[in-house]
Automatic annotation (TrEMBL):
Region of interest: Disordered: 26-65, 398-438
InterPro entries recorded: AKR, NAD(P)_OxRdtase_dom_sf, NADP_OxRdtase_dom
Protein's UniProt name: Aldo/keto reductase
Domain NADP-dependent oxidoreductase, chain residue ranges per copy: 104-254
PANTHER family: ALDO/KETO REDUCTASE
Compositionally biased tracts (Low complexity): 423-432
SUPFAM superfamilies: NAD(P)-linked oxidoreductase
Lineage of the species this protein comes from: Eukaryota, Sar, Stramenopiles, Ochrophyta, Bacillariophyta
Domain of life: Eukaryota
GO molecular function: oxidoreductase activity
Length: 438
């Protein structure tokens, strides 16, 4: 419980100043601010009602009135669509390029990012002030991609995500930037000022005037102090208000109760008390978690939050991103080599396709061109790989995934539909991609 702070005009002023500076500094040829990265449901010229059906799909009900021979008839059709465009700026992409890399290899970042974009990655995930990410190298890679005629993309064609690393409490992972004040000053800064400095630095590093997503980074699956996190979040919200940030999120959330209470517990506002929990105005749309057996692959309460499908689900806008898919406890899928070979895939591709059918976003940070190509191919045909729910279930068992409670099925579906087994009936699943790479 914390005392709700008053609106800090000083903070708002800083937000505006940083916005103006970013607009001046962005040396990017294509830096116009695009509209928020959401994808709307189908539109038709007839009467259309859109209903959010699940965390990764929307159902569009179209009513068509036809009058024939004086008799009026009405036809109602419902279509389910997923909003997971690969070559677009949706925050629900099946695949994103992660720029984490060891310190000694960070000179490769610019080249890797340019190459990843050239190969088809459109969602780039990096992290500011993080010792394993070279954010300014990412900016160079982006710049090179914009000016490379073979790539032919602009800022608006990408989904750029970076993160906020609190300066204190992360001794080994925090990376001071050359433009920052001395470390002694950084360590005594308020968390609000840390956020301002970080956003300013990220905008400059990434040569952009806006960020598609900004994530609060929790290290090693341990949540940062909630009170401090919420103070930081308040500043995040000001940048959303200004249109500088489009989506907010956080990493490593494995405690469903904490998540609910911190971000969604609207019952806490009791006017008879002076101390109320600060409830964020803008709720997270992205959670970045490990795909790992030591957290039960989030089967259970967290999965309910990530993938609950009840009507008007308050978490329906959440998208889960996964790291440690290929280098975690699932062994890069190597236990499934036989099945992968049968399907004409590599074990890594089969594992990625499984996670994608769960409607989750796979973060991969490959340095290898062939792997980039393979990852892109699977992001386009993951919904054709598994033949049935049974096959997907068997695969999850072999992965060591905690099994779903009786009567519950795995999130997503074998054929990529958001609403469970067989929801896209014209896509029976061929069981393989046409080629290992395009
Ligand atoms: N929030 C957090 O705490 C956190 C922690 C870790 C990572 N992340 C995010 O997640 C991103 C991914 O990191 P990660 O730790 O999951 O691992 P990663 O850096 O993606 O590494 C995965 C491994 O998979 C290999 N690989 C990729 N595609 C392959 C393919 N098609 N076939 C075979 N091998 C393939 C890569 O090797 P090659 O280079 O040889 O292809 C690499 O050894 C990071 O960049 C970061 O954005 C977040």
């Amino acid at each position: 419980m914390i005392v709700e702070s008053k609106n800090n005009n000083n903070n708002v002023k800083k937000t505006e100043e940083i916005a103006a500076a970013a607009a001046d500094e962005a040396a990017v040829s294509s830096s116009s601010i695009s509209s928020p990265a959401t994808t709307s449901a189908n539109n038709t010229s007839t009467s259309t009602t859109s209903v959010s059906a699940s965390s990764a799909s929307s159902a569009t009900t179209t009513t068509t009135a036809v009058t024939t021979g004086g008799v009026a008839t009405t036809t109602t059709t419902t279509t389910t669509t997923t909003d997971r465009g690969v070559a677009g700026v949706s925050y629900r992409t099946p695949l994103a390029y992660g720029t984490k890399i060891s310190g000694k290899d960070q000179s490769k970042t610019a080249y890797n990012v340019e190459t990843a974009i050239q190969e088809g990655f459109r969602h780039i995930v990096t992290c500011g002030h993080h010792s394993s990410n070279n954010e300014s190298g990412v900016g160079m890679g982006l710049q090179n991609a914009y000016t490379n005629n073979n790539v032919g993309i602009e800022r608006k064609d990408l989904f750029l995500q970076t993160c906020f690393v609190p300066f204190t409490g992360n001794k080994h992972d925090f990376l001071r930037q050359s433009s920052d004040p001395p470390e002694i000053e950084l360590l005594t800064m308020s968390i609000e000022d840390q956020v301002h400095l970080s956003i300013k630095t990220s905008l400059r590093n990434l040569k952009t005037t806006y960020l598609d997503a900004y994530i609060f980074h929790n290290f090693r699956a341990k949540l940062y102090d909630t009170n401090e996190m919420l103070k930081a979040w308040k500043v995040f919200e000001e940048y959303v208000d200004q249109g500088i940030i489009k989506h907010l999120g956080l990493t490593s959330v494995h405690n469903a109760k904490w998540f609910e209470k911190t971000f969604f517990n609207t019952n806490n506002n009791n006017s008879t008390t002076t101390t109320t929990q600060m409830i964020p105005r803008i709720t997270p749309t992205i959670i970045q978690n490990r795909f790992h057996s030591n957290r039960q692959y989030d089967v259970g309460a967290m999965q309910e939050i990530f993938h609950g499908t009840t009507t008007n689900n308050k978490y329906s806008k959440l998208q889960i991103q996964r790291f440690w898919i290929l280098n975690g406890s699932s062994g890069g899928g190597r236990f499934h080599t036989e099945l992968a070979t049968k399907k004409g895939l590599s074990a890594a591709q089969l594992l990625l396709s499984f996670v994608m059918t769960q409607q989750e976003t796979c973060l991969v940070g490959t340095n290898n061109l062939q792997h980039m190509k393979e990852d892109i191919v699977i992001s386009k045909c993951y919904h054709t790989i598994f033949h049935s729910e049974q096959e997907r279930n068997d695969y999850s068992k072999k992965l060591g995934m905690k099994q779903q409670p009786v009567g519950k099925q795995l999130p997503g579906s074998y054929n990529g539909g958001g609403g469970g087994s067989g929801s896209i009936s014209d896509n029976p699943g061929s069981g393989s991609c046409n080629a290992t790479t395009e």
